[in-house]
Structure formats: C-alpha cells, structure tokens
Specification:
Radius of gyration: 46 Å
Family: Belongs to the UTP23/FCF1 family. UTP23 subfamily.
GO biological process, one term: rRNA processing
Number of helices: 11
Mean pLDDT: 81
Distance between the termini: 162 Å
Structural class: alpha/beta
Protein name: rRNA-processing protein UTP23 homolog
Keywords: Nucleus, Ribosome biogenesis, rRNA processing
Organism: Poecilia latipinna (sailfin molly)
Strand content: 5-15%
Order of helices and strands: HEHHEHHEHEHEEHHHH
Amino acid sequence: MKIKRQKQAKKTISFYKYNFSFREPFQILIDGTFCQAALKNKIQIKEQMPKYLMGEIQLCTTSCALKELETLGKQLYGAKIILQRFQVRKCAHLKNPVPASECLLSMLEETNPHHYFVATQDRAVTDGLKKIPGVPLLYIILNTMVLDKPSQASLDHVQAVQLGELVPLAQQQSIRSLKEEQGISQKVGERRGKKRKRKQSNPNPLSCLKKKKKGVPTPALKKTEPGEKKKRSRHKRRKAAEGDNMAAPVVIST
C-alpha cells in the first residue's frame, strides 16, 4: 500500500512539474488544522513530508493562521507550537487578521503564482482551492499523509493549453514581469480608448507647382524609303519670292 501511494504521489508531482512549472524546494503552506491532525496521528511533518514528496521542501504559514490558533486557546496549544517552527509568509492582513481559511486562499490568488502546496484539513480551504488551477493539496487520513489527485480545474486548464486556447501560466507570468520592467503594463481598455492624433504636416511642395501646358505636337517626319532620293523642300523660297514680287513697283512705259 505504501509503494502504491508513493507511485501515485510521484505521478501527481510530475504533473505539476510539467504543466505548472513546480520546482524544488517545494513550498508547503500549512494551517493549524493540519498540524493538529499530525500531532494526533503522531506524524513528524519535517521528517516524513520530504520523503513522501521525494524532494526538498520549505514549510511555511501565515500570521493569520498563527493568530487563529492563539485565539482558540489551550486545546490547540500543541498545534500552535508546531506551526511556530515554520517560516511566516507575509499576507495582506497584518493589521486586520482574518480567518486562516480566507488568508490561505488569498495567498493563492487566481493562478497560484508562487507555486504553493497547501496542507490543510479545513473543508472550506479544500473546496476553494479546487477551483484554482495548479494547486496541489495535502491532507492526513488514516495516520498517513496523502497528496490529492489534480483537481478538475487543473485538468481543464491543461487541456485548454494543449488545444491552444490559453497561454501557459509560466508564460503569462514572464510576459507580465517583462511588461512591468518596460513600464508598459497598461490596461487594455485604457489603451484602446485613446486615439492617436495625426500630426499636422506641411503640404507637399511638389503638389503646389503649376501644371505645365502641353505643347502642340510636332508632325512626324516622313521617312524615306531606301533607294529613294530625298526631296528638298522649296516652300519657304517660294513664299519669299512671292513677297519680293508684290513689293516691287510696276513701271509703265509710254
């Protein structure tokens, strides 16, 4: 049974590595309910979880989860001691703490950009994270830790990426970071709303020139055939001779 469970965990981890770019050390986000279940079932989280996940891990929690255990009193004192040993990640509720379930879901955002595993026994958290693609779930059942199979939201997301309907999450994050570096992370609606104004330019100087009048076409010269003598034109001489005759006075002899 243990070997079968290990094989299933290896298959699930490979799924998240390949499709959602999970890398070691795996970040495990833990709440008080998981620590309480581990304490009850005598599970050593720091020793057993790396062996089960077959890799290095970083155990972490939030200040809201710690605050919730403090308010619940002595019944969960042991779980509080365990949870205090882990790294505390910053959340958006430092001044106004919220329930641990709400805080953990806010850490995942819409696409789990920090690649968290979530270890919890809280039904509200498990129901909420199954709607977010790319979130591995860890829980304790029958004295053993179990890595849940990928949720339907994760499977649907992978199928959509394979069909070309969506951009992979890793590419979305790299595109977003590049836009922020270049300072062009502007909303699409704002960008579309603004119209580019045309600059007023001077008229083309060539278009202002007056059109030239077309000259009278010159008659084409008659080509002489080979062997034929070229005739000399005496048209101008005749006119000149006629002009001289008109100008000369007529003398009448008596």
